[in-house]
Specification:
With about 375 residues, this protein is mostly beta strands. The protein contains 4 helices and 20 strands. Helices cover about 10% and strands about 40% of the residues. The longest helix is centred in the first third of the chain and has 23 residues. The protein binds beta-D-galactopyranose (GAL).
């Protein structure tokens, strides 16, 4: 009995020490991040919405093994007051068993982002959606909405956006739809490939059916206008597309950004009237060097500023072994932003780690440095 009592006291005190450690340790990029139930957070390719003094983290719910790269469950949501302790709020958007639904279990749901529409008092989720059994061919963006932030979200539709609209920065001479264009197998870095891209061949091919939309993010500007930003044109060019007032449709006003530069994983923030973007190259689940760009207007033109990473050569080559997904403005602090990246583990998708690093500024330019452990006191 006495022995039992002593071991229980020991157990209790170690768990207290552990709990305290969790609380005070701030962010530990790459380590397991436990939620309020002691389970590693399952919200990959995620984004944050700040609402009613609370941060909500939406992301891809992954399962074990390679199967986990497909949507077997849906979009998971967590809430937090301080960005370090997260409460499991359950599945915000669920895949379905119904094989006639595009949202059937086994499709692909990636990089879900949620924004709040004040006019309709509705939470609007867009996500990269690929159809079951079709790999990454469909290149759709999916829409789901809810009156309650944590869901359940109701699936509305998946589309190739901006059908029947030319990009705003497309010269008139390019405006010739050509649905039969076949450029499979093209080497996009070759002079021939670059020429085809420059002349907007994909835009012309997809003019009637709508443009490709893969890696994506959402950005709401200070004037309340929202933008859907996605890798289009076979991942070779980003499209910055304006959403309608209710955020549930595309207005058809979009621009091509960094044409032919093959950017993925766009993450945007605004500081002192300038828009900054961190994006990645296109190497699938493997990391590559991040890219920083800046613009005076959200829809561009965007100017490349180079690699924001300031680490060892190996760290810079891999963006600290991560790929961008979102940039979090820290509430109540001026010019405080957090880079939110994923360290993908495609062989066992559920084990993916979160690389959150403070965005620091060097000569006024945003940069990233590695920290084993850090907390919000880094921001003044
Ligand atoms: C990455 C992309 C991820 C996922 C992956 C699949 O480039 O950023 O979201 O689509 O490719 O290979």
């Amino acid at each position: 009995m006495k022995k039992y009592l002593i071991s229980s006291i020991l157990l209790l005190s170690t768990s207290l020490v552990f709990a305290q450690k969790q609380e005070s340790s701030g962010f530990t990029p790459g380590k397991l991040w436990l939620d309020n139930k002691g389970v590693h957070i399952n919200a990959h390719g995620g984004g944050i919405l700040f609402h009613n003094k609370t941060y909500y983290w939406f992301g891809e719910h992954k399962v074990e093994g390679e199967e986990g790269n497909k949507a077997m469950v849906g979009v998971h949501v967590y809430s937090s007051k301080n960005l370090t302790q997260w409460k499991d709020e359950g599945i915000a958007l669920s895949v379905v068993e119904d094989t006639t639904s595009l949202l059937v279990k086994g499709c692909i749901i990636e990089r879900p982002k949620v924004i709040y529409n004040k006019k309709t008092k509705t939470f609007v989720m867009w996500f990269h959606h690929e159809l079951k059994g079709q790999g990454y061919k469909a290149a759709l963006t999916g829409l789901a909405i809810s009156k309650k932030i944590t869901g359940p979200y109701q699936y509305i539709k998946s589309i190739n956006p901006n059908a029947g609209n030319w990009p705003m920065n497309f010269p008139d001479s390019f405006k010739k739809a050509d649905p039969k264009l076949n450029v499979e197998g093209m080497k996009w870095k070759s002079p021939e490939g670059q020429k085809l891209l420059a002349e907007g061949y994909f835009v012309r091919r997809d003019y009637s059916k709508g443009q490709m939309a893969r890696d994506m993010t959402l950005f709401v500007d200070d004037d309340g206008k929202a933008y859907h930003i996605h890798s289009s044109e076979n991942n070779q060019t980003l499209h910055f597309a304006e959403l309608t007032d209710d955020y549930q449709n595309f207005t058809g006003k979009y621009t091509r950004v960094l044409e032919g530069k093959a950017n993925e994983a766009p993450a945007i923030f605004k500081k002192d009237g300038k828009y900054y973007m961190i994006s990645s190259g296109t190497t699938g689940w493997d990391p590559n060097p991040a890219r920083l760009s800046v613009a005076d207007h959200i829809q561009g033109p965007w100017k490349e500023l180079g690699d924001p990473s300031r680490g060892t050569e190996a760290q810079n080559k891999t963006t600290f072994w991560s790929q961008s997904t979102y940039i979090i403005p820290v509430m109540g602090k001026k010019n405080a932003f957090i880079y939110m990246g994923d360290r993908w583990t495609p062989k066992n998708a559920i084990d993916g780690r979160y690389i959150w690093l403070p965005i620091l500024f060097e000569d006024g330019k945003p940069i990233l440095r590695w920290f084993d452990q850090w907390d919000l006191s880094i921001f003044l």
